[in-house]
Write a structure and sequence with these properties.
Blueprint lengths: L6 E11 L2 E10 L10 E4 L2 H8 L1 H10 L7 E5 L4 H5 L3 H18 L7 E5 L1 H12 L6 E5 L18 H13 L7 E7 L5 H13 L4 E6 L5 H20 L4
């Protein structure tokens, strides 16, 4: 596992976006020159996934063992999580047109970045690429909140129900605007298992390369930690090191 001395951590705030300031923390190998192009992974709920689901520990292990190439990871602080992640056009614009370009200017890359997120952050992951196609080369969605009226009537009281359901309906009725590598994972003891299975099937129908995994757990960080180990190294390999 990486030690504090083996990595750099850079804190930055992207200002002037359509949803206000977005705080980031970027993890890099300590021997990486600031101008060295390295692949970039972005993570919704990044600080929480790092603290409770061992995100950068997993990346550090995979890089140290040469399973994955040297890379950078940008942890995206959620801020006002529900209004940002619930299929918000303003947040998707902030991410695609402000945060990603700003981060890639500061930390250059020669490959399309990958985006991941859990729960509403998983929904926001798909929404960002759907509304700004070509921004990301790979998407990982963990227990995504892909609500439908038929499968999730218990969520009707959620304040952004219409936005979420409206976007999910778009995915189920529109052609895919881009073809990123995709992975979805969920727990077999959570309510979102059914809408995640339906979304995985739909993205496969649209011709996207989809890998899935499940674990016997609920809607929590332990579930997402285990799913990261099952899905993330493969997704990054498919996105950044495709077989010729």
């Amino acid at each position: 596992m990486p030690t504090d001395a083996s990595v750099h951590r850079v804190v930055a705030t992207v200002t002037g976006t359509p949803v206000g300031d977005i705080d980031t923390l970027t993890w890099s190998p300590a021997d990486a020159h600031f101008a060295e192009p390295l692949p970039m992974l972005f993570a919704h709920d990044g600080p929480e996934l790092d603290a409770f689901a061992e995100l950068t520990a997993l990346i550090g292990f995979c890089v140290a063992s040469r399973r994955l190439p040297r890379m950078r990871v940008t942890l995206l602080a959620p801020g006002e999580r529900n209004p940002r992640y619930a299929a918000s056009a303003a947040y998707a614009q902030a991410l695609a047109e402000h945060v990603v370009p700003s981060q890639l200017r500061a930390h250059p890359s020669d490959r399309l970045p990958v985006l991941l997120g859990p729960s509403l952050g998983g929904l926001a992951t798909l929404h960002a690429e759907w509304t700004h196609p070509g921004t990301f080369g790979g998407l990982l969605m963990l227990s995504g909140s892909f609500f439908t009226p038929e499968l999730d009537p218990q969520e009707r009281g959620f304040e952004f129900w219409d936005e979420v359901v409206g976007f999910v309906e778009r995915v189920h009725t529109e052609p895919a605007p881009s073809r990123p590598q995709v992975a979805l994972g969920w727990g077999t003891e959570e309510e979102n298992q059914f809408n995640n299975a339906l979304m995985a099937a739909r993205l496969g129908e649209l011709g996207l390369p989809v890998h899935t995994a499940t674990v016997e757990n609920g809607h929590n960080f332990t579930c997402w930690r285990d799913l990261l180990y099952l899905l993330l190294p493969d997704l990054l390999t498919r996105t950044w090191m495709p077989r010729t």
